[in-house]
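Chain X:
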Amino acid sequence: MAASITYRLRLLLCLNKRRPEFTSSWARMFCSSSAPSQFERVGFIGLGNMGSRMANNLIKAGYCVVVHDLNHDAMKKFSEQGILTKNSPLEVAEASDAVITMLPSSAHVMDVYTGPKGMLSSGNLIRSRLFIDSSTIDPQTSRNLSASISNSNLTGSKGQQISMLDAPVSGGVLSAETGSLTFMVGGSEEAYMSAKPLFLSMGKNIIYCGGPGNGATAKICNNLAMAVSMLGVSEAFALGQSLGIEATTLTNIFNSSSARSWSSDTYNPVPGVMDGVPASRDYEGGFATKLMAKDLNLAAVSAKQVGATSPMTSLAEEVFTQVCNEGHGTKDFSCVFRHYFSGKDQI
């Protein structure tokens, strides 16, 4: 009961602008008492399946959170909890010490940061002193945006230089819900260390990858490897079925031999083999095929920019794009077993 009362008071005190009788010292007592960070008020932009859960974990950790999303229904869910909502990215930046963005594409990221009502449109002074982008976008956009911030005349409200981190995540909706995401972080090491308590409120594995854009690079390389692995495992299962061996038998063989992989022992694509995975629920939930196709396109574009040889990237992008074009874009990406390789359920 006491914990519940404290939590409600914390939410109420995050609205101190509406209730001037609450002083900033009271707000600090409740909003930051359990949040080990120099960032008392944290903005969050992008309240989709991932972002909404990440923002909720920040709230549970004791941060005063300010949110924005183009979807007013998504913001309403937070405002009904007593969480402060804002009408534009700029308003979020003006009310927050740090801002986290979780957005669908590079174009959305650029609009939120540099658009007419973007966070960088205020002139030379802004309250926020750290921006963290957890969107999955191409590394070059991350590097360009970081350079723009570093080269600008913007300073934080206390005169600090503004920093940016690219910090995409791995783990999906379930890990976002449970606060067990993996963060791949690029940017200055000093900014990374200052942001670590924020990351630990939303995830359990925080990996520093180096300079600007390296977090984005790590994410697209991870998803490329995941996509190729899923295609190989799915093709092998479908071939085995055609040749008369059951997927359960092949799974036992794969998982006790050199073919073992995450796609076989944790995220098996064959319906009826493993409980609790998207294949067990008609490929609903999980990581959408259209998002995998998007990430593979990012990898293909990046490979072309640096002249890297990437035949598997091109083939994987072609396969997942075809599955999307056939109407399965919202299904989990493991549905390639059924919809591309014509694999059968395990009875």
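Chain Y:
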Amino acid sequence: MASNQRPYLCECGKDQIYPHSMSFNPRGDMLLLVGRPRCSEKLCKSSNSHRLSEGEAMCFRVDSRMLEAASTVFRDRLLSPSSKARRLKLDKKPDGVKRDIHFPDDDPHAMRVILEIIYRRYNPSKNPPMGVQSLFNFTVLTNKYDLVSRLSCWTPWWIAAMERHWKRAVLVSDSSEDMESLAWIYWTLGHKPLYACMVLGIAFVSGQDAAHRLIDGNKELCFTDDGGGVPAPPNLPCEVGCMRIEALRLIRNEIKLTLESHLEDSISLPRWCTQGTGPPPRGSDRSVRQAFVAVFEGEKLWPVPAVSDMAVSAKSLLDLFRLHPELPAFKHFAKNDGDFSCGRYGSFWSRIKHILLNTIQLQISPTSARHLEKQSKISGVADFYSRMGVDINSDRPWSVFRIEVLQSTAFKLR
């Protein structure tokens, strides 16, 4: 197909190198160029402002009727006179080709997977598993061209492939980038629990800059893209902000409980533990309290500020305790006489991590919940889990631990 063609023209006016070609129908009536071919002029800067890197382009020979039947959005884009699809600058088309269309802003690799699905050639077991960025680009296009309903056969494969990424990201990663991409993927496929989990993950690494904007652990602004227009679920920033406050509140409450109830060092008026009827804190715990205070003072967090005044992320607080495993947690133990005693029980950072994974309830907005429920039915996610006896659209709040059990059970039974 490429041998009969002159190169395309770049925006700078120079010829472009002809992209890799792939035929889905040798007699197809349409050429579909996706992405931006590399310019023959090495110093060309015309594509620097685009999200897709220079040279990312593929040309597909297809049957226009297959695309038009796959989606009304495809049909409108290909046929409408007001379509934003650009016509190619070809002197001579291959025999049988009646139309040539250019989609410069679409990802060519994602479009190839879409065409394989439309032509019923896609087999995920024979292809390398898609990474986060590849699946993100793919779901961007399936959402754009209203093709989510065609994904039901393969959705479980992609959800299983993403498991190692979200497990590795939550409470571990410093960057929110992958989690923002995963949030979009689960938003598109309609996986309510994993979307809520990504809300917590992004909230956990998010701090605030001087302008009260959310920033991740690498000091990069959340929910931004350098000129690429990367989409984000509409309520995600608000949901992340609320979840961040909730995570910080939980951690702050545990800090205050430990300092004021378990380690209070007042000789004139010893405080009894508010959680039980045991003896007042022992004098030997004075050094523990001093260690707590020293850690907070070193991070300029003493006295412990109100949650609304905390610019740090919940992860930075957890890492602070992780680096000081000598800081203990406390627990109340029932004695044989029915009384209670208060004593050290593990490290403080283990307690906080347990609370975040098992106790904190992952909440999302009603608008997001309705959208995710609708998408789960379109993509086949709801049907997949219902066959396992699980309702992923349940109103019952999710925790990270409960989601891990859900995923493990679902894919073990699959």
